[in-house]
């Protein structure tokens, strides 16, 4: 891989900036100062420093975001604020996109990555990846509503796959686990039993729980274990 490409992919600097830094003697490859960045390096093997800092190359980046209200799950938009805006400038340059969508007013766990293959796998209805939502509803959920929500309700002619519902004591809130990602699915499922979602938050995705130490709008990289867990879906 070209050195200038690598430095821009890890979000350290633009290609033009890297050329200037090389001319100024601020980049080393395997201990040798390089004067140009249009050279090829092996990102997995070469030891590269930029401004004295070791460059950590990772093919893919995974981020856990605690999505706040009012942001759309998109990479750019002319009118709305996007979840990408919540990342710092350097991280924004990594080519990340949200793995799936949360509505503008849905909160909680959103994974951002630049691993398109994995994202596709996690979202494919074939693979039944679980998503857990905490919701509050306008009215109490009866035993019959629960049975219908769990066995499948009809959304525009298509019956939802089996779901799991754990109700809280008030019976107006609970945790719904689904394995699909239909448009507004949780809200529409509740509407199908003549109810209405008043609050929605994703608390778990593909077995990874939302890190509750993250405030709304905060994010962090996935841990090594979380990354390995997600990547295991490709095996
Ligand atoms: N279901 C919804 O209705 N909205 C979301 O954002 C996610 C799941």
In short, what is this structure?
By secondary structure, the protein is an alpha+beta fold.
Describe the structure.
With 235 residues, the protein is an alpha+beta fold. The chain has 7 helices and 17 strands. Strands 5, 8, 9, 10, 13, 14, 15, 16 and 17 form a 9-stranded mixed sheet that branches. The protein has a 4-stranded antiparallel sheet with strand order 2-1-3-4. The protein has a two-stranded parallel sheet with strand order 6-7. The two termini are 26 Å apart. Uracil is lined by residues 102-103, 106, 133, 184-187, 200.
Bound molecules: uracil
**Helix share bin:** 10-25%
Task: Report low-confidence residues grouped into runs of 5 or more.
Answer: none
Radius of gyration (Å): 22 Å
**H-E string:** HHEEEEEEEHEEHEHEEEEHEEEH
Main sheet specs: 9 strands, mixed
The fraction of residues in strands falls at 25-35%
Give average pLDDT, whole number. 96
Structural class: alpha+beta
Q: What general outline do the C-alpha atoms trace?
A: elongated
The separation of the N and C termini measures 26 Å
Structure annotation, total helices: 7
**How many β-strands, per DSSP?**
17
Keyword list:
235 residues, alpha+beta, nine-stranded mixed β-sheet, four-stranded antiparallel β-sheet, 7 helices, binds uracil
Architecture blueprint of SSEs:
Elements: H1 3-9, H2 15-23, E1 27-29, E2 32-33, E3 48-50, E4 53-54, E5 62-67, E6 71-72, E7 81-82, H3 89-92, E8 97-98, E9 107-113, H4 116-123, E10 131-137, H5 143-151, E11 154-155, E12 158-159, E13 164-167, E14 173-178, H6 185-192, E15 197-205, E16 208-209, E17 219-221, H7 224-231
Parallel strand pairs: 6-7, 9-15
Antiparallel strand pairs: 1-2, 1-3, 3-4, 5-9, 5-17, 8-9, 10-14, 10-15, 11-12, 13-14, 15-16
Helix pairs in contact: 1-2
The structure holds uracil.
């Amino acid at each position: 891989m070209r050195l200038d490409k690598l430095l821009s992919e890890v979000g350290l600097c633009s290609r033009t900036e890297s050329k200037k830094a090389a001319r100024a003697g601020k980049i080393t490859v395997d201990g040798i100062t390089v004067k140009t960045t249009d050279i090829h390096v092996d990102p997995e093997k070469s030891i590269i420093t930029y401004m004295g800092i070791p460059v950590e190359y990772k093919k893919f980046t995974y981020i856990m975001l605690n999505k706040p209200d009012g942001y759309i799950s998109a990479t750019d938009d002319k009118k709305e604020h996007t979840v990408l805006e919540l990342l710092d400038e350097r991280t924004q340059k990594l080519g990340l996109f949200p793995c799936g969508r949360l509505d503008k007013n849905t909160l909680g766990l959103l994974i951002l990555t630049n691993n398109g293959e994995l994202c596709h796998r996690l979202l494919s209805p074939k693979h039944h990846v679980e998503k857990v939502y905490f919701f509050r509803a306008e009215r109490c959920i009866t035993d019959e509503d629960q049975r219908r929500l769990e066995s499948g309700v009809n959304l525009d002619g298509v019956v939802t796959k089996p779901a799991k519902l754990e109700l809280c004591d008030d019976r107006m809130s609970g945790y719904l686990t689904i394995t699909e990602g239909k448009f507004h699915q949780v809200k529409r499922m509740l509407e199908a039993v003549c109810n209405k979602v008043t609050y929605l938050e994703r608390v778990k995705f593909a077995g990874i729980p939302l890190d509750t130490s993250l405030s709304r709008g905060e994010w962090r990289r996935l841990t090594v274990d979380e990354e390995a867990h997600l990547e295991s879906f490709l095996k």
